[in-house]
């Protein structure tokens, strides 16, 4: 999707400072050509923003003082796309700009028309952040903002939803669900919902959801079998049927741990500048111990106790062999 809406917001922010800025200065700050700046200025004027211009070597642009600002005119996809980007950044998508993103998201809501404000608010109200890095491997998938908007509305209104869903092998099935919450994690989005066809709770990757359609039927009140939606997604990533669930501190940076761990290992969370927490699982203690030993970094197992005991037994055996 074009970054024009985001650029216009940035241009408005620069012009609202009250000082006059030249076209060259604006083009450098925005990373675009002076011709693009002129086109964006014209678009703002077409939308009703009073942008004044002065001619000459020292001339430039600024917003007219004392004029009421009209609502920001974005179409549905543009508004939701910006909200998705800001929400992702506010919850760990980009390090260091979390508070700034939250402020920008609040400002965006204020200038949106009521109809779009409701869609953006639904996305905020129904999304639970999962902090950390998923060891899924590869770049984050592209998720359609329009799909997220429909999923968020179904969660907020407690409405059943039908959609097409693509499995990992590419097979597509039609699903009938009761959406509960959206979970944002590591630039990925998950829908936690009750699958009516399978009579159980499920996690759906939002980028694999197609053609979601609300049915108009109210969802039943159900109890999620987890502390919250983020915990449910964590369990599904670690392995819903894993016999052993482990929580381990790795004494290395989050970035280094993510590079060492194979895809699908679990969820990483920073625990200081040179420590991180790994939530993982497996069916066999031998395999869990082997996986941790091969990471090549110091670690401490918090749970389960059975894994601690197994590591102690294996360590004693190794020391005896070394002697």
Automatic annotation (TrEMBL):
Top-rank lineage group of the source organism: Bacteria
Matches recorded under InterPro entries: CBASS_pafABC_assoc_protein (IPR051534), DeoR_HTH (IPR001034), HTH_11 (IPR013196), PafC-like (IPR028349), Tscrpt_reg_HTH_DeoR_CS (IPR018356), WCX_dom (IPR057727), WH-like_DNA-bd_sf (IPR036388), WH_DNA-bd_sf (IPR036390)
Keyword annotations of the record: DNA-binding, Transcription, Transcription regulation
Domain HTH deoR-type: from-to ranges: 4-63
SUPFAM superfamilies: Winged helix' DNA-binding domain
This protein's name: YafY family transcriptional regulator
Native organism: Streptomyces gossypii
């Amino acid at each position: 999707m074009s970054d024009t809406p985001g650029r216009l917001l940035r241009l408005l922010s620069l012009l609202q400072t009250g000082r006059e800025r030249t076209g060259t200065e604006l083009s450098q700050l925005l990373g675009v050509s002076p011709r693009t700046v002129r086109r964006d200025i014209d678009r703002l004027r077409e939308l009703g923003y009073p942008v004044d211009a002065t001619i000459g070597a020292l001339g430039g642009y600024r917003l007219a003082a004392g004029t009421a600002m009209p609502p920001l005119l974005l179409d549905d996809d543009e508004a939701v796309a910006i909200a998705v980007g800001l929400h992702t950044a506010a919850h760990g998508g980009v390090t260091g700009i979390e508070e700034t993103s939250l402020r920008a998201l609040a400002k965006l809501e204020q200038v949106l028309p009521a109809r779009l404000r409701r869609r953006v608010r639904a996305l905020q109200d129904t999304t639970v952040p999962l902090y950390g890095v998923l060891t899924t491997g590869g770049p984050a998938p592209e998720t359609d903002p329009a799909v997220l908007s429909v999923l968020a509305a179904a969660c907020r209104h407690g409405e059943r939803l039908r959609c097409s869903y693509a499995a990992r092998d590419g097979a597509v099935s039609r699903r009938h669900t009761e959406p509960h919450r959206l979970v944002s994690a590591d630039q990925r989005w998950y829908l936690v919902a009750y699958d009516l066809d399978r009579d159980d709770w499920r996690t759906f990757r939002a980028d694999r959801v197609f053609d979601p359609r609300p049915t108009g039927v109210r969802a039943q009140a159900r109890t999620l079998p987890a502390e919250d939606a983020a915990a449910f997604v964590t369990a599904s990533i670690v392995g819903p049927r894993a016999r052993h669930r482990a929580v381990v501190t790795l004494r290395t940076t989050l970035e280094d741990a993510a590079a060492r761990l194979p895809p699908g290992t679990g969820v990483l969370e920073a625990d200081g500048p040179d420590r991180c927490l790994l939530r993982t699982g497996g069916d066999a203690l031998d395999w869990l111990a082997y996986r941790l030993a091969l990471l090549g970094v110091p670690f401490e197992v918090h749970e389960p106790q059975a894994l601690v005991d197994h590591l102690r037994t294996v360590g004693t055996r190794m020391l005896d062999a070394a002697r």
